[in-house]
Design goal:
about 85% helix; mainly alpha; DDE Tnp IS1595 domain-containing protein; 2 helices; about 0% strand
């Protein structure tokens, strides 16, 4: 899971990653 996220982050640092990060953060900190 994290490996994929890092790979995606390296490939295209943009909205998708930001959205994913925000989603994960909110989900984890809820």
């Amino acid at each position: 899971m994290w490996g994929s996220a890092k790979w995606s982050n390296k490939k295209r640092r943009g909205t998708k990653i930001n959205f994913l990060d925000s989603y994960l953060s909110e989900f984890m900190w809820r």
